[in-house]
Amino acid sequence: MSEPRKPVKQIHLAAHFPGVNNTTVWSDPQAGSHIEFSSFAHFARTAERAKFDFLFLAEGLRLREQGGQIYDLDVVGRPDTFTILSALAAVTERLGLTGTINSTFNEPYEVARQFASLDHLSDGRAAWNVVTSWDAFTGENFRRGGFLPQEERYSRAKEFLATANELFDSWHGDEIVADPATGTFLSDAKAGAFVHQGQHFDIEGQFNVPGSPQGRPVIFQAGDSEEGREFAAAGADAIFSRYATLKEGQAFYTDVKGRLARHGRTPDQLLILPAATFVLGDTDADAAELAREVRRQQVSGATALKHLEFVWNRDLSGYDPDGPLPDIDPDLGEHTLARGRAQVRMYRDPLATAREWRELAAANKWSIRDLVIETGNRQAFVGSAETVAHTINEFVQADASDGFILVPHITPGGLDVFADTVVPLLQERGVFRTEYEGTTLRDHLGLDRPAARSGSAAHGERAVAS
């Protein structure tokens, strides 16, 4: 007796507006502004035309520095997330709107009110990527510097999210009774009442934004650490992943989905969505050649040296980027050279990384620039539209992901070619929608509307966070 065939999964696609960073070829003549609203609008409309689930914005709370100077790729800055997403809600109709907002330096009432408002303005299309801040450098903007030891930041984030959910749900579960003559609530209506007492927050009052069209904004999480994976399994609707190979993706998928049962959740209640860059060409060979060209445009000689400084923690400006790697070892002291750079955290054992890179460079006869290009900037999907569509579908059907968040190297028009060539092929295969079937982001992602909380917190009695 043959085994039953596994159901064909539907692919989830989203688009990340990249801003100016190491994936962007800002020097390309096709590159436009990264701060003018017309760029955001073009990008969002392309994603919606292609029937993507959502648009995603990352967050930058401080201009990054290297060697005491503003890192040159950040000079345009980052406009405010809520301002952009609220404006995009007016020029789109179905596309989800996802913003990254920090839980370390903000307060639950403020953030919950902003997301609940965005969810109303967009008719239920808002999502929140909950992140923590890891460095005192960023905290200086908030007069908090090294606020909270790093090991306590997930504790704060967990309670922050739980508190925000109490606020989102504070209008649920009660019969809202209004005086028909005046339109005001009767005295026994408890809508919006909340009380929260915990380690990090002790607040009570009346939440002033009614329940939104999708119940609560969708919750995303981006951490890859043990704490981050567990945080996502406990309360997120989707988790980003940095694993872009099939084998690594399957291992991450299995690990995170396997954590859900102990939180009383099922595998379909958490989506896994890796970020993915891409380069398309008329043929696979054309795409491969273009990909090499793009990588060299992304990594100038100066950029390569700065990337190496993330590991070496030394000023390497005197080295030739087209020459060999430094023969001196990394400085293992406090990392003060690159400030506000997430990449610094990736290299937890600088000596081992330096040793591995020297071996790679020697075996392949790579210069510093060659090494940075080959180890840090390979695109996830390279090929013809047919090849890329096949590969994306293969990853999803093999449970390496539930879809992808696409990051083009040209802003804002870099998504257009994917929308025009790859999406129709996925639609022909029957693995991606041809039309939106619902109106909210939860509809797009196949997520149920969260049940209204019951019990003390929803009725204004004291809720104590463990």
Automatic annotation (TrEMBL):
UniProt key word DNA damage: no
Keywords: Flavoprotein, FMN, Monooxygenase, Oxidoreductase
InterPro entries, sorted: Diverse_substr_monoxygenases, Luciferase-like_dom, Luciferase-like_sf, NTA_MOA
Binding, FMN: T100, Y154, S225
An example molecular function term from Gene Ontology annotations: monooxygenase activity
Domain Luciferase-like residue range list: 26-398
Pfam families for the chain: Bac_luciferase
Superkingdom to which the source organism belongs: Bacteria
Annotated segments matching region Disordered: 447-466
UniProt KW Nucleotide-binding keyword: no
Family recorded in the similarity comment: Belongs to the NtaA/SnaA/DszA monooxygenase family.
Protein name: F420-dependent methylene-tetrahydromethanopterin reductase
Organism of this sequence: Streptomyces dioscori
